[in-house]
Amino acid sequence: MSETPSTLHTALTLAASGVPVLPLRANKVPFGNCPTCTGNTCGGRPNMKTPGPCHCPGVCHAWAAATTDPAVITSPPWQAAWRRAVCVGYHPGGAGLTVVDLDDADAIAWARTFLPVTRTVPTTRGQHWIYRGTTASRNAVRPGVDVKSSMSYARHLGAGTGHVVDLPDAVRALVKPSPAPPAPRVPAVPAGRGGEECPHRTPTYLERGISMAVQRITDARSAVHATVYRTFLAVLSTHGRCGCLTDAHVARLFTAAQTKGESPRHCTDAWTNARTTLGL
What we know:
Largest sheet: 6 strands, mixed
Structural class: alpha+beta
Radius of gyration: 25 Å
Distance between the termini: 70 Å
Strand content: 5-15%
Helix content: 25-40%
Number of helices: 9
Shape: elongated
């Protein structure tokens, strides 16, 4: 089997424009280590770490093997790889770029709401949004969204449409591990009339309610913002007037929402709006 007629030409064209390229096999995976470099015993260029001193002539170190050198791209070891390749990959960070990989319609809708419009490339299931600037790479930064830049590779799917704009801080924030938020403060609310024992203080009743609310947020597959707000509203309508909610209960709700991609600010806004709606 020979390389797809346009594959090597595409790779050389990209390399000439300063984009480091590499061949990808079926399922968009890079070539593994050669026998000499098995397990990265060569001491350099491991797949997900800073490139080292390895001088392997092959294409066996994933993104770290990506190059713009036409002599390397057309060398015999690479020619052998191109004959088995199904598409061209590239190292976005090496080209000073970041790819926001949007896997489905919900992810695209989120990007259109929160990210600036930039060059867009259609993919099999969604879109690549390409920005000027680099950042760390991280998968699953929110449902259906991966960020590919430094120490990562992406599949080349064409030139796309639109103009590349600068990488927004919102994307850089996505790849930073989020510290555990402090437990939100819940203002005290009056207990039942006449000082009677609040029925919601029954541990089993309250625990079941909070667990169901957490599960409702966790199970959301779309409209996460609306689901979080409606869930907060339901919890507050049942437990918000008697003072039975503790900081720990609210922190569980916020943690579930942030796991689905909501920011601490969005959680606080949804909580405040729900309280306002109920007159709390």
